[in-house]
Amino acid sequence: AVEEAEHTRHTAQHAIPQGDQPKVLDWIRHRCVLKVYGQGECIWEHWTNDSSPMPGMFIVINGVVRMMVQMEDRMVPMYLGSGGIGGLISMVLERTVPGVSMNAAYAEGNAFGKGPAVLHLPRELFAAIRHFSRTERLNTYQQLELQMYRTAAGYILDLLRGVVTTQMSAFIRGALQSIVSG
User: Fold this and answer.
1) Among 16, 51, 122, 160, which residue carries the largest CB count within 10 Å?
2) Is the backbone of residue 11 left (phi > 0), alpha (psi -120 to 50) or beta?
């Protein structure tokens, strides 16, 4: 009972909901910024040689965003539509990762010349989620952090699919040539 009272006091002090997922989502939503961008407007730029930390991540609510990702020696555009997430991998890994981290994001226009609506989740929000997941060991936040890792892993696998397919094809072709000539 003493431990529960202490936990309740700490939670109330920081206004962090703990078990009720709709309240947790409201808490997160109130710490985010929704912004509508004009066509061609820069949503964010963060170059991997820049030592400043990533500012957070964003979710495309409506519209299209063009992300620029450094792959090998060139910049590759990737397009995010509604529900697309930019910056998640860097937030989960707590650093930029060449080949998978976004360098820049720009608003793409629709047929009416309007840009996307984007929800920005600041880096400080991730620090709070990590704290309540790892230090406070609150189950809802642990589940949220785990889901962020799972989602980031899925994105990384999607990005690597082409590379892995090419390497596996080369391996199989080489093995077949060895068998045939062998």
Assistant:
1) 16
2) alpha
Residues in the chain: 182
- The per-residue pLDDT for range 42-64, each reduced to its tens digit, is 998 875 455 556 778 999 999 99
Q: For residue 85, give the 3-state DSSP assignment.
A: strand
Q: Which residues contact 81 (CB under 8 A, 6 or more apart)?
A: 60, 63, 64
Contact 136, 56 (CB under 8 A): no
User: Percentage helix, strand, coil, to 5, in the chain?
Assistant: 45, 25, 25
> Closest by alpha carbon to 91, among 122, 47, 112?
122
Rounded Cα gap, residues 116 and 43, in angstroms: 10
Q: Which residues contact 115 (CB under 8 A, 6 or more apart)?
A: 36, 37, 38, 39, 40, 41, 63, 107, 108, 109
**CA dist., res. 56 & res. 70, Å (int):** 18
pLDDT digits (tens, 9 = 90+) for 84-110: 999 888 888 888 776 677 788 999 977
